[in-house]
Amino acid sequence: MITLPRSVSNAEEAIRLAPAIGFMEYGQGSYLSNIDDTGDEIKLFLGIKYPLLIEDEERSIPSMRIIPDVTSINFKRNDTGRFGYDFDQYSVFKEKLIQKDYLFLQTLERELIRNTYESLSKIPSVANTLTPLMEISNSFRFQEKLDKNKVLKSRKNQRQMHNYIRFMVRNDLISVSENDIHPTGKLLGFIDSKDGNFSIRLMGDLLMRNYSELMTFLHLSGLKPYLTIANSYYTPSSEAGSLLRVGIERLRDYYKRLYRTSPILMKLRNQVSMLSEVEVLRIENRSITGIEEILSRQMGVLETMQSS
């Protein structure tokens, strides 16, 4: 049994000791990912690397999942001038790793929204999810202000409509004074634009800029399946460094690997088909492949995350 020193004399010794602590406490995939040295305190961040085998219909590609800065070893100068240290127990580390893995997926999903928002907003079920928002926005094509009570009563679920109004206020699309709703200059800019297709442009802009809020505040169930399916294709492709060619079953396997649940096959086929119709994915000879431009941007984000 190896016994590690409980203190070090300087930053160099701390840096040499950190990988050994990581190996003993968290396993051989741990590595030193970042250093924050303020003199009396030294924070050494540990990340995790683990191997992946990414497969499609033609090849097997070895890769590596890299998640930096999962936890830290904290060295602090004591009264003797040496640096004692503390670190997370394995159970705490494991919980932090789950959180980092979730943020990893969220970051890739947000980037995918930025790259595909106009396409996704053309899918009928995604557009339907945003119908209350569009009903309010399109009303200003015909009148200068709306009666708030009438807007709330326009749907059976008044609480949901109230959430849409709050969302639009928070995102500077409308303002509310007493019982009247007025469009802001930002919303009128979308309505009056000569670029055409106001609804697609507005929905696309909201998806791109406010994805997290849309998902948590409005619970847009119509959007999430398409985004997670697209991400289940582009994340392993990004880690492989090239577009994969996969069957529907393998795509479902990648979905399960990322999201720890398995979509219904019939629904998955339909949703992949819809994604191909708006050119987020492609179906060729009953196999699924992707778009090079989308992959290139996703790979750039993945590289930035893994090197940060």
Strand order of the largest sheet: 1-5-4-3-2
Mean pLDDT equals 90
> What ranges have pLDDT less than 50 throughout 5 or more consecutive residues?
none
Secondary structure: helix percent: 40-55%
CATH class of the largest domain: Mainly Alpha
Quick one: CATH superfamily of the largest domain? Winged helix-like DNA-binding domain superfamily/Winged helix DNA-binding domain
Strand content: 15-25%
Overall structural class, as computed from helix and strand content, comes to alpha+beta
Number of separate domains: 3
State the helix count: 13
Textual characterization of the structure:
It is a single chain. The protein is an alpha+beta fold and 308 residues long. It has 3 domains: 82 residues; 105 residues, Arc Repressor Mutant, subunit A (Orthogonal Bundle), CATH 1.10.10.10; 87 residues, Arc Repressor Mutant, subunit A (Orthogonal Bundle), CATH 1.10.10. The chain contains 13 helices and 10 strands. The protein has a 5-stranded antiparallel β-sheet. The longest helix is centred in the middle third of the chain and has 31 residues. It is globular. The model has no long low-confidence stretch (mean pLDDT 90).
